[in-house]
Amino acid sequence: MVAARESKAASGTAQQVDVAVVGAGFAGLYLLHRLRKAGLSAAGLDEAGDVGGTWYWNRYPGARCDIQTIDYSYTFDPELDKVWTWSEKYATQPEILRYLGFVADRYDLRRDIRFKTKVTEAKWDETAERWQLTTDNGAPVSCRHYIMATGCLSAPKPPEIDGVGDFKGEVYFTGRWPHDGVNLAGKRVAVIGTGSSAIQSIPLIAEQAALLTVFQRTPNFALPAHNGPSPADRRDLFQSDRAAYREQARQSMAGVPYPQQTAVSWQLSDAERRERFEVAWGKGDLVYILTQLWADQGVDFDGNKLICDLIREKISAAVKDPETAAALMPHDHPFGAKRPCLDTNYYATYNRPNVTLVNLRQEPIKAVTAGGITTGKRNVDVDVIVFATGFDAMTGAIRAVHPITGRGGKSLSGVWAQGPQSYLGLTVEGFPNFFMITGPGSPSVLSNMAVSIEQHVDWVVDRLAALRDAGFTTIEPTVTAQAGWGRHMADCSMVTLHRLANTWYTGANVPGKVQGLMPYTGGVGPYRSICDEVASRGMLGFRLT
Ligand code: FAD
């Protein structure tokens, strides 16, 4: 049983727990379950009104996962796997939210969570060796360990356009979509942005709206999802040996059980490459097309360009107007160096008479006015503006808790002024007993996050239980270990093509954000081995007291 040290404190008196878990999405829920099983008392805190995280907030039309749901699921309890069956290859947001609610009920997690409660500040108390968290709703929290399960894509990026406040029509953000839906029927709608949320929602908005104008700054590669029932080959593989399937995912590069390719592009003829590409295009599977074409696709510019050319051919075939097709073709980044999108009828939507693409590279937005949007070449009158402008990824939600004050009064923002530093993407020197789930420096957004989240949570909770059992009260990485991880991160990224793209992976989408590749590119399986080795070698790189 959990030690009954929690106090349901009134505002002012701190709630005392072993561990505070900020966030009640995939990561926070699993943390609460594991901590309870480990006999550690925990308080979950979430700004949201219920569990779900990403899937609580992102309710825009067409919101779905883009990793097959058979893979984008918890794996910690084989019984859970058996009692939940996904209805589609890529489940919709409502279904994923139902799943997370089902998980919360099954393991009785809601009783440990304070909803509508935002953590605003965090301070390490050196004498008490505890974190003190300030919230915007009710009691502060005093905890031995502070875990941020605040999400990589949970801090929406504000629009960088003048005059948004002057607009007299309706304004929506895909990352904060109203819970009771939005009626767009017969309206003139603008969508700003062409990232994943835009690419998922544009075809559905186009079906409802009288007129849809899409404002695009940077085109993305999008691949057909071919959604439907879970494909028989994956389902059969999973059902033939569920444990082996899950284990293969844990050891894979991206958290989905696909083997490493060995043939490099120049060993294959044009016809062989095209055949492989067509198979991948027909599968509608992001991880498959990102990893299974040829071995050098993610590391060699020429090997990668072959794929870019083949996708551009597909765009050209799908979009009737050549000028629109050309504007939709990415040329500024290698395929996979920026997260590609999965779509349903995205390119074909531009053939509809009610849809127009505005290429902001040729005519930047000058201002949002009372009645619409003005570019250098036109005024577009609209009733509704949908901002699909993405997130301050990976560090946004962490830095929004301000200040996070560690040992000696150090602030995390100060330590990260030149970009995030961490050891294993999990911990930061100078911030004892502080953990991040899928933080900068971990595989996170380059992986199936369900698998990465489980690995992080298991590793952190196992360490906390071991520390407690050994009589330690603090854990903190050393300067040397953190610097070494930074060098290893840089070495890994130098052999990939990520260095050639300005993306949200590098912070380039947020004005003023220090740029540098934030996720670890060494792969999910290798990362897991490193974490396990750290633990088995007496917590290599950590100072315990
Ligand atoms: P989140 O789900 O983001 O939850 C974090 C929670 O922390 C939020 O509820 C937030 O309210 C709360 N929070 C943050 N700061 C505070 C604070 N200061 N105080 C209190 N609460 C706070 N990943 C995949 O692997 N596959 C996919 O197919 C996929 N599809 C996605 C589709 C969309 C539209 C988006 C936006 C992301 C997608 N992702 C996908 C990434 C997705 O974010 C992760 O898979 C996963 O849901 C993250 O879970 P999490 O618990 O780490 O964070």
Concise description?
With 545 residues, the protein is of the alpha/beta class. The protein contains 17 helices and 20 strands.
How are the secondary structure elements laid out?
Elements: E1 15-22, H1 26-37, E2 42-45, H2 54-57, H3 78-83, H4 93-106, E3 113-114, E4 119-125, E5 130-135, E6 141-148, E7 170-173, E8 188-192, H5 196-208, E9 211-216, E10 222-224, H6 232-240, H7 242-251, H8 270-283, H9 286-291, H10 301-318, H11 322-328, E11 341-343, H12 346-349, E12 355-359, E13 365-368, E14 372-375, E15 379-381, E16 384-387, H13 396-400, E17 404-405, H14 412-415, E18 434-436, H15 449-470, E19 475-477, H16 479-494, H17 524-536, E20 542-544
Parallel strand pairs: 1-2, 1-6, 2-3, 4-17, 6-18, 7-16, 8-9, 8-16, 9-12, 10-11
Antiparallel strand pairs: 4-5, 5-6, 13-14, 14-15, 19-20
Helix pairs in contact: 1-15, 6-7, 15-17
The structure holds flavin-adenine dinucleotide.
Flavin-adenine dinucleotide binds next to helix 1, helix 2, helix 13 and helix 15.
Q: How is this structure best described in words?
A:
- This protein has 545 residues and is α/β, with parallel strands linked by helices.
- Helices cover 32% and strands 16% of the residues.
- It is built from 17 helices and 20 strands.
- It has helices at residues 26-37, 54-57, 78-83, 93-106, 196-208, 232-240, 242-251, 270-283, 286-291, 301-318, 322-328, 346-349, 396-400, 412-415, 449-470, 479-494, 524-536, and strands spanning 15-22, 42-45, 113-114, 119-125, 130-135, 141-148, 170-173, 188-192, 211-216, 222-224, 341-343, 355-359, 365-368, 372-375, 379-381, 384-387, 404-405, 434-436, 475-477, 542-544.
- Strands 1, 2, 3, 4, 5, 6, 17 and 18 form an 8-stranded mixed beta sheet that branches. Strands 7-16-8-9-12 form a 5-stranded parallel beta sheet, covered by helices on one side. A 3-stranded antiparallel beta sheet has the order 13-14-15, with no helix packed on it.
- A hairpin with a 4-residue loop joins β4 (119-125) and β5 (130-135).
- α6 (232-240) crosses α7 (242-251).
- The two termini are 26 Å apart.
- The model is unreliable at 1-10 (pLDDT under 50).
- Flavin-adenine dinucleotide (FAD) binds at residues 22-28, 45-48, 53-54, 56, 58, 63, 65-67, 72, 118-119, 149-154, 197, 397, 400-401, 437-438, 448-449, 453.
